[in-house]
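#struct-pred
JK: can someone run the complex with glyoxylic acid? inputs below
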Amino acid sequence: MTTLLFISRVHDPAPWVAAFRRLDPELRVRIWPDTGPVEAVDAVLAWTPPPGFLASLPNLRLISSFGAGIEHVLGDATLPPSVPVTRIVEERLTRGMSEYVALHVLRHHRKLGLIEANQRAGIWKWLPPADTPRTTVGVMGLGAMGAAAAVQVAQLGFPVLGWSATPKALPGVESFVGEDQRDEFLRLCNILVCLLPLTPATRGILNRSTLGRLPEGAYVINAGRGGHLVEADLLALLDSGHLAGATLDVFAQEPPPPDHPFWRHPKVLMTPHNAADSLPQTVAPQIVDNIRRAMSGQPLINLVDRTRGY
Ligand code: GLV
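RT: done, structure tokens with the ligand placed:
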């Protein structure tokens, strides 16, 4: 019998166990920390597993992330090098992210935050409608979610630029590549969206220097990872007036501590890491498929390149 160990402090195991049972009644699912004999664990489904723990499972054949991001697993220096790591790429997750990006691009573009604040203050103030063809949206990271979000925003009529490690051909999206073209890309973005994977190369990539290259009055949307953003640098640029606003779905600490300036900052909209979510019924099938593949030595789907980090 194959055993899957479920490791998460934030996901309710019940619907996942039910989904696995429906898909494969033979699969034994254990819920961490009730691991049972460590030798019996064949696969794990993990979200921020305790560092060092995965190395204690001697017969592990597969590590799957709960989501698209995998840095919460790869950051563990003791991770056994030979165990394959997979992540989730899935239509609902991708669509959810495109929806989130479109929503917040339009919110900034139409100055909805300001209009709402004016209403609360009893102010009727006509604001000139923004000019869509003159508002450039830049998307950093063109993986499954970044690519879909960029195409979606282009379909709304915005000029869209994409920045990625390798060239990408996407309809309506001008491709900028690598360090060499980063400054040129940033200089053009009125609204910057970060959907990069978090790797040693992208940690802290949204900082005073990079965000300072955005045009005056630009907006930032971070739905990648909290580790991409140097929060104090963003605050300094918002407070100096260089940046007009930010939407943040991810944070250095989640939730941010109660005294964090983001909570009450008039130019910051915080969302509770819910830009896109993984549902058991849509995600469990690819995990069960990958467990079968791992146990029979077949190629895995959504396999992570561990040296690249995504
Ligand atoms: C969520 O943040 C994910 O990695 O899918």
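RT: quick notes.
Residues 67-69 surround glyoxylic acid (CB under 6 Å).
The chain has nine helices and twelve strands.
JK: thanks, will look after standup
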